[in-house]
Amino acid sequence: MKLISCHDGKLVRVEQTMLGSGGGFVTGLSDLDALLPPGGLARGAVHDVLWDDRRGHPRPGAFAAVLARAAARSPAPADDLRPVVWADPLGELYPPALVALGIPLDRLFLLRAADADAAEWALAECLACPGVGATVAPVGRLTRVAARRLQLAAERGGGAGILLRPASAALGPGAEHAATTRWLVTPAPGRRTVQRWKIELIHGHGGRPHEPVYLELTRGHDDDGHIGLACRRVETDRVRAPDAVGHRPAPPAAG
């Protein structure tokens, strides 16, 4: 099978083998997977995970971990996990949190490059490696050449590239990307033991963009020692006035 697309005014033929041998993947969270393009998220491709840095929102590492674990999981019956490379230039990553989200330490490789040029080169090398299931990296503004280089590297390697990008650098005039899907993650009100994020698909051919779902992470652990994850179409635990107060009848007119 061949796919034909247009790039810079030229028709480009893409062989099926260039799209990765593993096909598409899903997260296992039904409400989130309902937003995906037909066939799921593509392996051998790049996916952008954006956050609003101008409002001081934190980097959405939990959602990136959900995508990375799903991308690195081998199809049944093997159902093992291929290596996950996570770029951590500032040493901010807390590996036990990834273990709780289902990425064991023996499958996790941390990437810490000496400078920005070395980081870009190393990221492309990891994406192009057939033995890597998913590569997660924080990335700022990209040139067209750099975006295309990462896309081609992912196609050669067959794994998934998950780029954590601030919205100020990834959106707006002059911003370049070569991502198959783009996601916007925004913190949502939670509780002491529950963290929530609003997840929105903002780009993905065949998907359902701008239909938000809410990812919930519960600190209580299940029998396997993993953090509880759930995804819902509506935000839960919103404060609402009881009917007796919300629909109070108007007071009688003064005599």
Question: How would you describe this structure in keywords?
Answer:
single chain, 255 residues, alpha/beta, Rossmann fold, nine-stranded mixed beta sheet, two-stranded antiparallel sheet, 13 strands, 30% strand, disordered N terminus
Could you characterize what this model shows?
- With 255 residues, the protein is of the alpha/beta class.
- The protein has one domain (19-237): Rossmann fold (3-Layer(aba) Sandwich).
- The protein contains seven helices and 13 strands.
- It has helices at 30-33, 61-72, 95-100, 116-127, 144-157, 167-170, 243-246, and strands at 2-7, 10-15, 24-25, 41-42, 45-51, 84-87, 108-111, 134-138, 160-166, 181-188, 194-203, 213-221, 227-232.
- The strands form three sheets. The chain has a nine-stranded mixed sheet with strand order 7-6-8-9-5-10-11-12-13, with helices on both faces. A two-stranded antiparallel ribbon has the order 1-2. A two-stranded antiparallel sheet has the order 3-4.
- Strand 12 and strand 13 form a beta hairpin.
- Residues 1-8, 10-21 and 239-243 have low confidence and may be disordered.
